[in-house]
Amino acid sequence: MLLYILKRVLAGVVVLFLITVFTYTVFFVLSPDPAYMICGKTCTPDRIADIHEKLGLDKPFWEQIWVFLSGLFVGRDYGEGVNALHCAAPCLGYSFQTSQSVFEMIVQRLPVSATLAVGAAVLWLFAGIGGGLIGAVKKGTWWDRGIMVVALSGISLPNYFVALALQYLLVVKLKWLPFPTAVPFADDPLLWFQSYIMPWFVLAFMYAAMYTRLVRSNVIDTLGQGFIRTARAKGLDTNVVMGKHALRPALTPALTLFGMDFAALLGGALITETVFGLNGVGKLTADSITQNDQPVIMAVTLLAAALVVVANIVVDLLYSVLDPRVRVKAQ
């Protein structure tokens, strides 16, 4: 099992290295003039030349990659002499537009994105698994049809439409909820909950719909398997058959999706955070795209890729718990 874990971790490191090289190539090699793109259209030639020198763009490609990668572990300096800018480890880049370390910018906004992602994940897992299980058990009934209609709505309606509709109804017309703000939980727990409940629901709606359909179809397929008929023939309780024998294998594909979806959300829910004005990583990304702040865009891309790779490793390990066949292969 230890060898299996080491192989998965090593594969993850290789994937992250390749993603880093590819992303750096896109932003700093394929770009016509990275210093001009980072500085902006109103920048002076002297400022562009200064950024060009600080980034070391005149150095060989592999030397640039080495400096970037080493900066992740030991930090790096942009430029030389008294005008050098120090970026402490882990240095994901430096925003010349805001004069800030990109890592610090992300860390400042990460709590908002993490709160949004965790809350939405709890909602969509509860609704998706529950709805899918009820739909499979009550197949062909009004329960099943009603759940599928709601699921289809969740998949069809864009996030921004649901967000704007709920905001108009619950905040403007009925005044049941305040306009969402990134209130820390320690300052006011009630206002914190009221501020996040609507973004949680908006973000979870589409995912819950997809998971409902996935779990429903998997449970229906599993219920038709021979081992389920054997379990029923042995006189096992219905709850045991459903919970232990039917739901458990049906959750394996959902677990794969959950790992990637949750990791991607930690990298920022761009539309939801922008619509509700929550200052998370997603809104930071949207603002950086608007201002063409390429170091920030590149850092968020790498962060999202790293989270997805880590989530995949965790999911692979959880597979061995849920599915005995994977455990046997790993051994």
UniProtKB/TrEMBL annotation:
Origin: domain of life: Bacteria
> Which GO annotations describe the biological process of this protein?
transmembrane transport
ABC transmembrane type-1 domain span: 110-319
List the SUPFAM superfamilies: MetI-like (SSF161098)
Q: Where are the transmembrane segments?
A: 9-30, 114-137, 149-170, 190-210, 254-276, 296-319
Which cellular compartments is it found in? Cell membrane
Among its keywords, does the record have ATP-binding? no
Topology versus the membrane, per the UniProt entry?
A: Multi-pass membrane protein
- Tell me where it mainly resides: membrane
Q: Does the keyword Cell membrane apply?
A: yes
One Pfam match, by short name? BPD_transp_1_N
- Could you tell me the keywords of this UniProt record? Cell membrane, Membrane, Transmembrane, Transmembrane helix, Transport
* Gene Ontology CC terms, in alphabetical order: plasma membrane
Q: Entry's PANTHER family? A: INNER MEMBRANE ABC TRANSPORTER, OLIGOPEPTIDE TRANSPORT SYSTEM PERMEASE PROTEIN APPB
Task: State the family named in the UniProt similarity comment for this chain.
Answer: Belongs to the binding-protein-dependent transport system permease family.
UniProt name for this protein:
Peptide/nickel transport system permease protein
Q: Which organism is it from?
A: Paramicrobacterium agarici
